[in-house]
Amino acid sequence: MATLNLKGITKIYPHSGEQKKAKKGQPEKKTNLQVTDEGVIAVQKFSLDIADNEFIVLVGPSGCGKSTTLRMVAGLEEISGGELYIDGKRVNDVEPKNRDIAMVFQSYALYPHMTVYENMAFPLKLRKMDRDEIDRRVREAAETLDITQYLDRKPKALSGGQRQRVAIGRAIVREPKVLLMDEPLSNLDAKLRNQMRAEIIKLRQKIHTTFMYVTHDQTEAMTLGDRIVIMKDGYIQQIGTPQEVFDHPANIFVAGFIGMPQMNFFNARLTAEGGKYFVSVGGCKVELSAEKSKNLAARKVQSQDITLGVRPSHMVLAKEAGNTLSATVEVSEMMGSEVHFHANADGKDVVIIVPTMDSNGVHIDSFHPGDKLNLTFSSNVCHMFGQNGENLEF
Amino acid sequence: MDNKKSSARTILAHVVLIILAFLCLFFFYILIINATRSHAQLQLGFSALPGSSLIDNFKSVINDPAIPILKGIQNSLLVSGCCAAIVTYFSALTAYGIYAYDFKLKRAAFTFIMAILVMPTQVTALGFLRLITGMGLDDSLLPLIIPSIASPAVFYFMHSYMQSSLPKELIEAARIDGSREFGTFNRIVLPIMKPAIAVQAIFTFVGSWNNYFIPALVITSKHKQTLPIMIATLRGADYMNFDMGKIYMMITIAIVPIIIIYLLLSKFIVEGVTLGGVKE
């Protein structure tokens, strides 16, 4: 266990001859990463202080630099700029094997010619640990991960979930200061993934170490992380606890990325009238709650065009048309305890989640494609984003 | 209708395969049959039935002081074995260097090695001979072994095999686990390369075993001769006055080690050791 401090970590991939050539013929870019004379900037000034024993999750769409950041911490990628400290010691130029970190790969990366036992004992043997101690640690880790019965098998005789346990076992036998995980569950099927996620939560309670976990799956990020770091195009978008990033997304990207189904966005108008704030969208004008008005007033927010964000579960169905937004149901998805309606409101696609029953077990009237809906939203749980995409409240 | 068609196809396929197998194996059959016949019997012409002179022929080959065949086998085994060992190890090492590391001129190095591939041995033979004479290595087995360290063809095979079967994550995992670079190669990469090494070891062994050109240029003394040179010396003798049974026996003896080596290593070719280590 250890603290981990990243100070302005930057990664630049220098141009190779081919990339330059390719640019002439093909002007289109695959990513939005910033390209300078020096090269492509994959990670931009990444700063984060990770406390001892903390579980940090890096999340973002593919190509956002999360894996690159993790690999720089591991020492597998050179750090182009900034400083990395493990337990207060600068480790920028320290080899991976001397950083006292362990890593779990998406592809498991088990040594195919060794048995499970040998795989797990390998890092300890390299550290010239005595045989009894190796045996004790391997068996203890195998016990923790429930793979004792497979110790004599080769990796090819194991299922995906078992292999990933062995990979985790190989990482924890060393009792590393920092445990790095690069999308460890991405190769598993949905059911196994849920199961392994729970296993990782349990594992975390058993071993005391600092975790850094990379995923593109927001469910994993929300359930595992003490804090989540959301990244896009090499930049950190927001750092916060799962609740914080869900309740107070810093910008439109975070708001859209976290939460399933995605948050609904509307073009709206924010008006300030006599110390009160109103949001109008379509034919619907809602006065914001006192708390939100206070936040906006504190930042001296003026009347302006905004993007309004409302989560599908926070949309409210009004019985009658009036101060409402009208929408037409296009698709309804029955999920069991709730129905997701995909509707068209003012040319925008909107998703509304409606429970199928009320608390007394009485079925709520359903809607069918083509039905008209009258929508409104609660003034407590809407999010306002300015023209630059930043949240206006914070 | 379909059934008839497919059974006709099967029969045709079998007929073709039987003819091919016959063509391949028939010469071995003749060789072995002829090795069992005496010179006099051989003079009478072809016979498909074995003769009775197997042991006589064998004895006359082994006991001939003019052809030290046991020494020849020993020399050939030494040269071919060493060649197979060093060519596979060093080619794998070179391929690993090009595959696993990023450095400037990596592509240039790869292209350069590939360029050597198109250079025939005969072109460089004269220079090679002058070089080893200058080094005082003529009439020695070393010049037959050491140059095999650099083999572009084996390098290319190893490199392709690594691209398909050696995920870089394994190397990275070993690095994080605390393995040194050379240790990673010996402990992780070599065992995974086993099937490729077995294949190339067989090819190199056979190639070196049958190699006549370079040994004929380098070796002069009798007790350093390899088998192909000895067989060639026999052929050079007046075959009317020579014991043909003895020649056939000698050729038979010469191919036995190759068959044994092939049988020993062939199971590694089939065995895919990397299967299951990394999910594709």
Architecture overview:
- The complex is a heterodimer of chains A (394) and B (280).
- By secondary structure, chain A is an alpha+beta fold.
- Chain A has 2 domains: 4-17 and 29-255, Rossmann fold; 263-385, OB fold (Dihydrolipoamide Acetyltransferase, E2P).
- Chain A has 10 helices and 21 strands.
- Chain A has helices at 17-25, 66-74, 116-126, 131-145, 160-172, 190-206, 218-224, 242-247, 252-257, 290-298, and strands at residues 4-14, 34-35, 39-50, 55-59, 81-86, 89-90, 101-104, 178-182, 210-215, 227-232, 235-240, 264-273, 276-281, 284-287, 304-310, 315-317, 325-334, 338-345, 348-355, 372-377, 382-385.
- In chain A, the strands form 4 sheets. Chain A has a 6-stranded mixed β-sheet, sandwiched between helices. Chain A has a 5-stranded antiparallel β-sheet with strand order 2-3-1-5-6, covered by helices on one side. In chain A, strands 14-13-12-15-21 form a 5-stranded antiparallel β-sheet.
- In chain A, strand 12 (264-273) and strand 13 form a beta hairpin.
- In chain A, helix 3 packs across helix 4 and helix 4 crosses helix 5 (160-172).
- Chain A starts with a strand and ends in a 9-residue tail after the last strand.
- Mean pLDDT of chain A is 88; it is low at 19-28.
- With 280 residues, chain B is mostly helical.
- Chain B folds into 2 domains: 2-56, no CATH class; 62-270, MetI-like (MetI-like fold, Orthogonal Bundle), CATH 1.10.3720.10.
- Chain B has 14 helices and no strands.
- Chain B has helices at residues 2-35, 39-43, 54-63, 69-100, 106-117, 121-134, 142-145, 152-165, 168-177, 181-192, 194-210, 213-218, 227-236, 244-270.
- The longest helix of chain B has 34 residues, at 2-35.
- Chain B is globular, with a radius of gyration of 24 Å.
